[in-house]
From TrEMBL:
Residue ranges constituting the Histidine kinase/HSP90-like ATPase domain according to the UniProt record: 26-166
Pfam families: HATPase_c_3, HSP90
Alphabetic keyword roster: ATP-binding, Chaperone, Cytoplasm, Nucleotide-binding, Stress response
Family that this chain belongs to: Belongs to the heat shock protein 90 family.
Residue numbers binding ATP: E33, N37, D78, M83, S98, G99, T170, R317
UniProt key word Cell inner membrane: no
GO MF entries: ATP binding; ATP hydrolysis activity; ATP-dependent protein folding chaperone; unfolded protein binding
SUPFAM superfamilies: ATPase domain of HSP90 chaperone/DNA topoisomerase II/histidine kinase (SSF55874), HSP90 C-terminal domain (SSF110942), Ribosomal protein S5 domain 2-like (SSF54211)
UniProt KW Transport keyword: no
Protein known as: Chaperone protein HtpG
PROSITE patterns: HSP90
Record's signal peptide: none
Amino acid sequence: MVEEKGTISVHTENIFPIIKKFLYSDHEIFLRELVSNAIDATQKLQKLASMGEFQGELGELKVKVAFDKDAKTITVSDQGIGMTAEEIKKYINQIAFSGATEFVEKYKDKGDDKQIIGHFGLGFYSSFMVAEKVEIVTRSHQDGAEPARWVCDGSTEFEITTAEKAERGTDIILHVADDSTEFLDSWRLRQILEKYCRFLPVPVEFEEKIINDTAPLWTKAPADLTDEDYLSFYKKLYPTAADPLFWVHLNVDYPFNLTGILYFPKVAKDFEMHRDKIQLYSRQVFITDEVKDVVPEFLMLLHGVIDSPDIPLNVSRSFLQADSNVKKINGYISKKVAEKLHELFKADRKAFEEKYDSIDVFVKYGMIADDKFYDRSKAFTLLQNTEGKYFTLDEYQEHIKANQQDKDETLVILYTTDPARQDTYIQGVRDRGYDVLKLDGVIDNHFINTLEQKLEKVSVRRVDSDTLDKLIDKGTQAESVLSDADKEKVKEVFNQALDRKDVNVEALSPDDLPVLITLPEFMRRMKDMARYNGMGAMMGNLPDQINVVVNGNHPLVTRLAGETDAEKQKALAQQAFDLALLSQNMLNGKALTDFVRRSVSFIS
């Protein structure tokens, strides 16, 4: 017998929540919402019992999910607080009203209310994304309460009748629409439950098996956990991944609520495959693994879990970017990561250095992207030289201070992006007593710019970007063994042999190569940056703006200046130039073949 018919209340002030329902990107979240509501109802009952306001037997509290393929139904059942017919009208028919909001307000001064998920109302209406009709059969925990049944076909019309239900709790029965029968499948439902519900705080049963861990690691106190606990949980999250380097356990309750565990994985040079591995939860309900804005961009390579009730379940990107709690959480995570790294550095520097290659990209990325992180991390950021030694920023500046200041007292940091290919230049500067850093990482080109911006009176230059005397200009000039006339003669020979007009003859050390090819630092950085940003092909079409410098003090050049045979002069000039190209890995194809044949003729 129908006791009441009516129209669901939709007011102007609650139109936004209704619209948000349609912003769900995936219809599968209907099950997340219904199970979350069932958990919510269960926890409300537990709270009332803990306060003595419910005297009955709690029994074995759990949420059950079942389906009937023939009847085309999916049922989510709980043994929680239940509802009366009046409460159905209040919490279901008035869409914008949240039963959990009222409940929390009523009991906010009587204990911990953080466990209440609190989305009954809007979340319930996600049912209609997959169902053509929805039934609620419920019985309140209140003594003498009459069971009630609510039915709606997805329009604003509903009906409420009495029902047959002996036990306390609520059954939500979805009559699945023809276009959503994919959800009437055991594998599909289990997949959704394991994705969204694997860490819910109340047992969830599907096909007579509990599918969730009700007390995941991040809900426990760090003092109660061992390294083995953290490693085991990591394997649960990422079964095929190598063990992480270390982790940060997050736990804060003011000015926002946040718990979680972030792991530092071993990251390869090509780190795109490591992104999007952090899982976002809200009160143990899985929300998404797209955590941009919640987690700082430079920490997107971390793995793990963060859980915060202060991040709404249903959010848009623009909402996240503007939300004050999200900004605070972002800043807090950055701060905690910096503190953890500094703690590890101070506790055991040797062990920190052994792992540094794997965390180098996190630290540098953070220093580039976040001024506050730069300030927090500069004490433990390490630079490695070509001899394999590590220095902090301050230590390295002190290390090279005596020998690598130019005439203007600017400290010049020399670096290599490829120690093997640039070995000739590295050996040349080391013969002068200079030190060379190894900066060959994916983002080191950007990191170099950051160092120059942040460090006072510091210039950073690649070892092959200029001649030795100009890399660190001491204001002195080597004396030339060639006369001005010989210099002009040598210059003319090289210009003709190489078909160039820009060859310079300079007085360099006799130990330097007879010809040096350098590429201006700014051009190198542009090409490196373009390559790392996926624009290498475009920049590759630009000609290398190389500088050709002839070492007027080298014995081969002296010999060339005294040579009277024009063909021999040309051959010597070409050979010296090809040697310079070879040292820069720029000699290939026919030019390399000609160089090899010419070399054979010189020694035969």
